[in-house]
């Protein structure tokens, strides 16, 4: 069980960094938020209804991914350090991550499965003793 919890912490950190890099790459590729929200050049007027729906959806996805990256990294570090708050944070962040389809859905389901097992909470209340390297066994 400890290995699965450590795997959740590592997955959170990796997924947070990945989301940050991909979101920043998309923003750079599209020319920032202004490029993502660019109006349709063929439209006779420039208002919110002339923004292509795909770009609007991509902008919402990029913003959500950017907002989720920091909590994913912080909760992942807390899980690896067996912080009690990280158990609750892992459940909440895992549930929110399921909205990042398709990979986030898989990650979120795995995280919720691990964090909601009855054996998980006692491990955070009484963390395993660290070995010689300073890492929990």
Q: What does this protein look like?
A:
- It is a single chain.
- This protein has 6 helices and no strands.
- The chain has helices at residues 2-30, 32-36, 53-80, 84-97, 103-115, 120-125.
- The longest helix is centred in the first third of the chain and has 29 residues, at 2-30.
- The radius of gyration is 19 Å and the shape is elongated.
- It has one domain (2-39, 49-125).
- Helices cover 69% and strands 0% of the residues.
- The protein has 137 residues and is mainly α.
- The mean pLDDT is 85.
- Helix 1 (2-30) runs antiparallel to helix 5 (103-115).
**Overall strand count:** 0
Total helical elements: 6
Sequence of secondary-structure elements: HHHHHH
Q: What percentage of the residues does DSSP assign to strands (E)?
A: under 5%
Overall SS class? mainly alpha
- Rg calc: 19 Å
Helix content: 55-70%
In angstroms, what separates the terminal alpha carbons? 11 Å
Number of domains: 1
- Globally, the shape reads elongated
Sheet with the most strands, sense and barrel status:
none
Mean of all residue-level pLDDT scores: 85
Uncertain residue ranges: none
Give me a quick take on this structure.
The protein has 137 residues and is mainly α.
């Amino acid at each position: 069980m400890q290995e699965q919890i450590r795997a959740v912490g590592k997955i959170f950190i990796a997924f947070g960094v990945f989301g940050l890099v991909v979101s920043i790459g998309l923003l750079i590729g599209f020319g920032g938020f202004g490029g993502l929200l660019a109006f349709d050049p063929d439209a006779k007027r420039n208002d919110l209804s002339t923004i292509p729906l795909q770009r609007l959806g991509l902008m919402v996805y990029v913003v959500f991914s950017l907002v989720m990256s920091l909590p994913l990294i912080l909760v992942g570090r807390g899980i690896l350090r067996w912080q009690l708050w990280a158990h609750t944070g892992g459940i909440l962040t895992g549930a929110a991550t399921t909205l990042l389809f398709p990979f986030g859905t898989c990650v979120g389901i795995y995280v919720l499965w691990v964090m909601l097992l009855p054996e998980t909470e006692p491990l955070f209340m009484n963390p395993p003793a660290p070995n010689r390297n300073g890492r929990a066994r």
